[in-house]
Amino acid sequence: MNPRLVTQVYRPVRRHFPRSILRLNSQHHERPNGTALYTTVSAEEVKKFAQMSAEWWAPEGHFQMLHQMNPARIDYMQKFIGDILTKPSPRVNTPDTPSASPTKESENTDTPKSSSINVTQPFRGLRMLDVGCGGGLLCESLARLGGHVTGIDASVENINIAQVHARQDPLLCHDPRQLEYINTTTTEQCESYDVVASMEVIEHVLNPRQFVQDLFALTKPGGLVFLSTIARTPLAYALTILSAEKLLRMVPEGTHDYHKYIRTDELRRLVESNAGGRVLDLRGIWYSPLDARWILVDPSWGALATQANYIMVAQKIRQ
Amino acid sequence: MRVWDGISNGRIHFSAQDFQQPMDTPMAWILENLNLHRAAVKSLDQMSDKVELIDRTKVVNINESREVVNSFNADDQSACPDWPVVQLDSGRMLQTRLLVGADGANSPVRKYSQIDATGWPYPQHGIVAIMELAEDTRPVTAWQKFLPTGTVAILPMPGNYAALVWSMEKEYVPLLKALSDDDFTCVLNAALQLPFEDLHYFLSTLKAGSVTADHLTSDLTNRLTTNAANVTSPDYKPPVVNAIEKQSRASFPFKLQHADRYIDQRIALIGDAAHTIHPLAGQGLNLGLADVESLVAVLTEAARLGQDFGDYNCLLGYSSARYFPNLAMLGAVDKLQKLFSTGNEPVAFVRSFGFNMVNSMPGFKAWLTKIAMGQ
């Protein structure tokens, strides 16, 4: 395939979701059907993201903003995981040569696997879970930094995309235990993890209270839960729906549902009064269009900083 | 650094003393290319456990993995389909997460990634040479004279030697290259010391072909002798060239060229592959080094944060940091080139006024110097 064709494949075809999805979602929110009492997954939301799944890894696709947000998330996670889950972070030679590498390929190609890169692996030895992993944007980064990562998602299409994409990177497929994806929902997982992350997911679930409780149930006592979402404020509406969806069309219309956004005080309450967690830090995360990246905002900015996108870390209280 | 307008005698003297605070680093370095090469090879040797240097080889082809690897790999999904594969003339194939195009103005990497470059050629070519200067006129600083046919720049080297970068309208370049070393030395001295009219007369008569080069150079020699007796401003005494090193004369075309983008998925262009610039301000290498510095910072941060550093969105940080600063420098140097290549009297008058005014403003000179230093 010539590069020109590839560019065409990467370039997103803009799909416009019918407004009815928005309405359907809010109806579900008001009158959850029977299954919603036992699972937090919204069928409509799963369908919506399944339709977009092929876009996950397109460099300039619908998920470009999430790609650009990824470094800030990892930066935040490193900051707190390093401080609290004090594991030694040895400099190691990443075994860049996968044991399960395709052998035919190595006949006369110097694959990148033959080299070795010195990478700091701050998450080495940690069991990490990404709930609502989508195409695996966060999972891949966590695995490269040494974590033993499980990504789960309610959409089988997303899981397929994530699995296929991880196999395309020799750093990720050298050890099958390093990164696994499972098509399931939170309530079906019952293992305990050092770190549970769910980024930009809670604003898409049906029952946030149950969802947060599930996240903490999956976490080891003393372990960390990372959550990022959008606050239900006029500013957030202006930025994430009016600007990003309707005016600039950076993400498809209908990606977000304003009524499902969660204010910072609401999320704090969900964590601290229902789920047995203690919020360690909560800060805003802002997009800087000039250098095309997201920045973590210093808490000294005051209340305004957390009026739109924000990220939070909580520790599960030891019994 | 001394800069001299050859039409109007306007002058600027750039010096580290222009700065109010003493500078912790020198204003600029003048290095022979060979020294840079040696230093680069030496530091590569020191990290030979991480870097493989493949020399005496040529790149015969660049493809995407999905075109190359498929034929001998049944499991398509494991083949890193969008990774570039570089094929060497030894038959070796290198598959890579990120391909950095540092392969010059006609960059094959840029062609592979189908990134267009826009620009235009300058009417001048560069003549370079190594020369030996008369002891008492050897400049201790860089020395530059603007002439309508192009800039004459002299960059000091150890001993009495100096490097010449003479930009010259391209129609005269073959004529100057055909001259003997002695005749060329004579013309060069005329360009440095005599009024521009003398050089202009020489070039146009030589081009017309009615008089032999020998005859013309003996005329110039006489004028130079007369002129040497009448030098009035010892401050700006131009260098006198004793001889040109044998075999050191060469010429190359100048062009302005800027890639439409610096990055693509798994591609980053740096240096001349991304931009070429007129050498009159000596900024080509500086821009390339700034590219390297920026790209390394972006890749280091991406690796620290577990990102796939060949990914387009990771590389965006590099292109957004470098594209507009480079574009601004390309544009500014292009305007300087146009300003100084005119012999138009009113323009030369205003230009000379500007030269002398800038020369009397140390703060402004310091600001200009900082920009040229890349700060």
Mean pLDDT of chain B: 83
Derived structural class of chain B: alpha+beta
- The termini of chain B sit apart by 18 Å
At CATH level 2, the architecture of the largest domain in chain B is 3-Layer(bba) Sandwich
Number of strands of chain B: 15
Strand content of chain A: 15-25%
* Tally of DSSP helical segments of chain A: 10
Q: Report the mean per-residue pLDDT of chain A as an integer.
A: 75
According to CATH, the homologous superfamily of the domain at 42-89 and 120-230 and 264-316 in chain A is Vaccinia Virus protein VP39
Gross morphology of chain A is globular
Question: What Rg of chain A do the Cα atoms give?
Answer: 20 Å
Q: Largest interface, and how many residues on either side?
A: A-B, 48 and 47 residues
Largest sheet of chain A: 8 strands, mixed
Low-pLDDT stretches of chain A are 1-38, 87-118
Which CATH top level class of the largest domain in chain B fits? Answer: Alpha Beta
Shape of chain B: globular
Percent helix of chain A, as a range, is: 25-40%
CATH fold naming of the domain at 42-89 and 120-230 and 264-316 in chain A: Rossmann fold
Keywords (chain B): FAD, Flavoprotein, Monooxygenase, Oxidoreductase, Ubiquinone
GO molecular function (chain B): FAD binding; monooxygenase activity; oxidoreductase activity, acting on paired donors, with incorporation or reduction of molecular oxygen
InterPro entries (chain B): FAD-bd, FAD/NAD-bd_sf, Ubi_Hdrlase_CS, UbiH/COQ6, UbiH/COQ6_monooxygenase
Domain FAD-binding (chain B): 60-159, 245-304
